[in-house]
Amino acid sequence: MQNRSAQTILILNLRYILLIRADIITMSGGEIFQLEQDEELRIEVDCPKDKTVSVELKSGMAEIFGTELVQNTPYEFPSGAKFSVFTYHGCQVMVRGRSEISPYTSKETPMITYANVHAGLEELRQAAENAGPAAAANQTSGGPAGGDGASADVSGKGPVVLVVGPTDVGKSTLCRLLLNYAVRMGRRPLYVDLDVGQV
Ligand SMILES: Nc1ncnc2c1ncn2[C@@H]1O[C@H](COP(=O)(O)OP(=O)(O)OP(=O)(O)O)[C@@H](O)[C@H]1O
Ligand SMILES: [Mg+2]
Description:
Layout: E1 7-11, E2 23-27, E3 30-35, E4 39-44, E5 52-60, E6 63-64, E7 67-68, E8 75-78, E9 82-87, E10 91-96, E11 104-106, H1 111-141, E12 160-164, H2 171-184
Parallel strand pairs: 1-12
Antiparallel strand pairs: 2-3, 3-10, 4-9, 4-11, 5-8, 5-10, 6-7, 6-9
The chain binds adenosine-5'-triphosphate (ATP) and magnesium ion (MG).
């Protein structure tokens, strides 16, 4: 008998394509960006080493790589940071601090794909959980593993995913995002970064 496990390979090759100037309100101390539904604000912090750029959610809901932002709370980012603030429903974000590259919004975002990957993984986890006790019972009785094998892992193990792609395209970030979404579902994932090159 062969154990089947759900295996997925995600190939990342993100290249940022579409640049759209956002609705910007300039205020003393910063700029407020109005983001529409499913839009992201990209920020590349290219300021002096001793300075930071701060991001503050003023209204609506938004997240950075799966971590929800708390309204009216400034988040500081050091020189060299590169990230996007994404919103599913629209929001206003204030950015303080100067960078060589001005923040810009884009509708061209991998976030919907990422959210779908999360949903797919969660479905496989639930199927594995449901198959788990049945599979264990079958193994004890010596019978074949249960389940129809369509999507559930008959051994009761969760999905296994291999994320591959060229250097610096967002592989680790995707893993972090999936981790954050899993936590938001009430799961307790463990993240081990064994890439010594990142230290
Ligand atoms: N969707 C995204 N939007 C904006 N910035 C992103 C996005 N995904 C990743 N980044 C940024 O791109 C940079 C590279 O991301 P990351 O470290 O995840 O890439 P990687 O593929 O794991 O790189 P490496 O090959 O070095 O391990 C980071 O600064 C990260 O914050
Ligand atoms: Mg990495």
